Amino acid sequence: MGIIKFVAIICLISSYFIITLPGLIFFAISPQKTRKVLNKIVSIYSKIVLKIVNAKIESNLADKKYSHKLIVSNHLSYIDIMLLSSQVPSSFVTSIEMKNTPVLGQITTLAGCLFVERRNKKKIKNEIKDIEEALSAGLNVIVFPEATSTNGEQVLHFKRSLFQAAVNTQTQVVPVTINYAAINGEPLSLSNRDLVCWYGDMDFAPHLWKICQQKEILVQIEFAKDLKADDDSAKLRDLAFEVISGNYNPIN
Question: What is the pTM assigned to this prediction?
């Protein structure tokens, strides 16, 4: 069964390349409109992939409709992207390192992601401007302010820089908490977390293969109340961290 799931996902990735490749041309003409279309396509594909791996989502999203929001979340795995995209079509902010990663780099580029190089203070201002333009165009933008995926033992301290985009555009921030609750009916723990958490120097393809062999992944996603944009990005960061870490169940 695992091989069928794995092949199905690879076929989906291939078909996604074919469908969205023309988007690279339209980016030069109308980047934000192109992103909006790509976001919807990614959302559809995400729902299909999650169905294939039998990811069961418990969410309090209900009938909320988000637009022009900066959505911030804790980060445990590349699956987080599909989980959040399936809930709210959005443009994701990810690292230059991800762009340069084989397969994932191509996927993120054709998904309309915004890339940042957090370690370069000279470039980060221009990259924040890119995020501001997307927000001003009415798009939802998702940020993982831990700046890396983790092993799930705790929510890492949030980076401040990208919250400035919400301040500059007076965009409300939506704190979202992802909890992987169980795998195959067993509560997530230190012994089985690596079946879903993707961190450190783990390779993508072998990890995806492991995921395809699981019978069920139960995920809980909590959308908290919007935070009003503040004139202080550090205060906004701290409020978001307090909400998300407060709703997170550490893996132990």
Answer: 0.92
